[in-house]
Amino acid sequence: MTITQGEQPASDPAAGPVRGRRMRLPGTGAPRTRGNRSSAMLVSGVLTLALGITAVILPVPYVVESPGPTFNTIGEDNGKPVISVTGHETFPAKGNLDLTTVYVDGGPNGPVSVFEAFSAWLNGTKAVYPQELLFPTGVTKEQSQQESATAMTTSQENAVAAALKELNIPFEQKMQVAGLPDDSASKGVLQSGDVLVSINDKPITSLGVVQAELAAGNGKSVKVIVDRAGSQVPATITPAKNSAGRYILGVILQYKFTFPFDVKISLDKVGGPSAGMMFALGIIDTVTPGDLTGGKHIAGTGTISPDGAVGPIGGIAQKMQGARSGGATLFLAPASNCEDVVGHIPGGLQVVKVENLTDARKAVELAASGGDTSGLPVCTSN
User: Fold this and answer.
1) Residue 94: beta bridge partners?
2) Taking a C-beta distance cutoff of 8 angstroms, is the pair 281, 302 a contact?
3) Which has the closest alpha carbon to 268: 159, 152, 157?
4) What local confidence, expressed as pLDDT, does residue 37 receive?
5) What backbone torsions phi and psi does residue 343 show, to the nearest 5 degrees?
6) Which of 63, 148, 190, 359 is deepest in the core (most CB within 10 A)?
7) What is the rounded distance in angstroms from the CA atom of residue 312 to the CA atom of residue 354?
8) In angstroms, how far is CA 142 from the centroid of its own chain?
């Protein structure tokens, strides 16, 4: 499932009363200036304390990540099943397939103070990052929340597709144009909403088909047919080379699915794409007989693509902490996150690295059967 930096003007405290000859009152042993000096020292101390407090509470351009709660994808949230299926037989499931979350303070979510950032830095379960590392400059809280909600919706659709593919249940999958950047090679040729049908007469069933054809053409123009509002429209596009040296059409694509039954995922106040793999495992457990977990408490994280590939996520150290605190003993981690896993595994938690949904499913099934999981792939330091 996203500060401003204050500036305190310099201050030169008073050096105290001017030294020199002091006039004494008759019959007194102390100079009259002692009271003035005490007042000056008191004022200086109060100012120093005020400046110190101000420095501690000033906002700083950092983001703090902390372990968040876990949610059982085969359980309930607020009295409702996290995953509900209509149009297909379902089976009760036991155990836990927990998705993990991270609390994010700072950035568009509101500033953190020097004290909060420093305290988090000293806390082994939290992480502190420069704000610009996680959020684009100028992004608002509303924009961040919208992006997170969109990523969650996409991850749920991808999870359904990946689960059905893993179970060999057929469904329809198309690629749709979601947008075109200003410098797009397809600008003026393709439109948002176009569904890609074929490229050089080859049916487009996935993004891989498009990428392979563009790579084979090495910059040559390609013939594309799109479905535009029910009509087949031909187009010729000369691809452009991106910063990575690959030829691209320059369009933002999204998958458009037609599934044989309905899957609804209900989870409040959780966003982002990182729950995809655990959603997919939850769907598999829901629509297949028996208990995928065997009653075990398993957690994990990772994005999911429609073809079942598991991708990296952020905050994995905090998610492992949250998983262990929630009771999990086995954790599924994306192989591409291994560098952040090593050295951060809490005691009592076994972490298995997975490349795809098939790897994740096999690991869960082995744990469910009571088999020896010590031979499963793990993250190692280079």
Assistant:
1) none
2) no
3) 152
4) 56
5) 90, 0
6) 63
7) 11
8) 16
- Nearest of 131, 75, 49 to residue 298 by alpha carbon: 75
Q: Which residues pair with 311 in a beta bridge?
A: 303
Place of tokens 């096999």: 362
HSE, CB side, 13 Å, CA atoms: give it for residue 191. Answer: 6
Q: Residue 158 contacts by C-beta under 8 Å, 6 or more apart in sequence?
A: 255, 276, 303, 304, 305, 306
Residue spans of the chain under pLDDT 50:
1-34, 50-51, 54-55
- Angle at CA 130, nearest 5°, toward 124 and 136? 135
Identity of the amino acid at 172: E
Rg, Å, the chain Cα set? 29
Tell me, what amino acid is at 162?
Answer: A
* Number of alpha carbons in the 13 Å side-chain half-sphere of residue 163: 26
DSSP codes joined into one string, 288-299: SSS-SSTT-EEE
Enter the tokens of residue 27: 């019959």
